[in-house]
Amino acid sequence: MNTSPATPSSTDATPLVKNPWAGFVIDFLIATGALIVIVITGMMARGFFRAIQAGMQSPGELEPDAIAKVIGEPNDVVILIVGSLGTGLAAWATYYWRCRATSAEKAVSRAAIRQPRTWVESLGIGLGMMVISSGLSWLLDQAGHQAEPTNLVMLEQALAFSPWLLILVAVVLAPLSEELLFRRVLFGRFWAAGRPMTGLVASSLLFALMHEIPGNTPSPLGITLILLVFYALMGAAFAWIYKRTGTLWAPILAHATNNLLGCLALIAGYGS
């Protein structure tokens, strides 16, 4: 069966297909705005729930300062869960509103995912990224440096809470939401306009910056730049396998494989 990739389509106006940068920026702003609203709503809901709990435990006895103390600041586990769910909802909303797949794309995707080659190549990409990550960590360690990704503390807190929470967030939610947003929506915007290489570079750089923001990490600037290059390479590899196979399930599988291996290493005590 012929499974040549179907070019992603767009549900918005034709000018945005001709000018993918405009669509790229709009898509990113929509996703970012949706994420901010969802996260704020989630944190407010948490605070409201904690306030109700405090009121039920000590009715009529708590003053505003006492209530604020009971509510407290959300810990890393709460932030991770709310952020992961928020990213997923924001990605889905942007996809549904802006870049829904056509029947032709869905048919190609179903045919591609049934091919053993798609599975082998996707698993190979995921394994390859983990090998590169491990080699990079080893080289930095030999040089007396230690890479500390921004999300490492949150992942360690998730592991301390429950290994299953770590697996759910890193192996299920993150690959689904990030591939839907960065590969299907943002990279797909340029692919639809016949400029896949530009889309690969733009979406991969944005993917890297989402994972590692300079100045927002305990690592020195040099280590941060190395991490940024690695994340950009990872994003490029996922965009490549998506375009090669024509199914978004390919980069999702590659992403999940890489993250699963990383989680297993973290659970086993081998660090990030």
What is the ordering of alpha helices and beta strands? HHHHHHHHHHH
- Bin the helical content: over 70%
Helix and strand composition category? mainly alpha
Q: Whole-Å distance between the termini?
A: 41 Å
CA-atom Rg in angstroms: 21 Å
Parts with pLDDT < 50 across at least 5 consecutive residues: none
| DSSP summary: helix tally | 11
Number of strands: 0
What does this structure look like?
There is one protein chain. This protein is mostly helical and 272 residues long. The protein has one domain (14-268). Helix content is 78%, strand content 0%. It contains 11 helices and no strands. The longest helix has 38 residues, at 20-57. It is globular and about 60 Å long. The relative contact order is 0.15.
